[in-house]
From TrEMBL:
SUPFAM superfamilies: ACP-like. It comes from the Bacteria. This is Carrier domain-containing protein. Coiled coil: none annotated. It comes from Kitasatospora griseola.
Length: 82
């Protein structure tokens, strides 16, 4: 979860992002969300869909989706080279 909070911090250019910090309430938008999805794929080897992201746009929510495999069927692909 901390790694996902770090992604949010880096992309949103914030000093602090709580585990339950909603990406959109922290200033993110749909275009910037694609950068988060790319970073998650690169750093964690799992491609989440935008629908996955919208379901719970928080570091804790995304971490839970990744850990439990609760990602959209099309999204559960391991990135090549991981």
């Amino acid at each position: 979860m901390e790694a996902l909070a770090a992604v949010f911090r880096r992309i949103l250019e914030l000093d602090h992002v709580p585990a339950d910090g909603n990406f959109f309430l922290l200033g993110g938008d749909s275009l910037i969300a694609t950068r988060v999805l790319s970073a998650v794929a690169r750093d964690h080897g799992v491609e989440l869909t935008f629908e996955d992201f919208l379901a719970d746009p928080t570091p804790a929510g995304l971490a839970t989706r990744i850990a439990t495999g609760s990602v959209t069927a099309d999204a559960h692909r391991v990135v090549a080279g991981r």
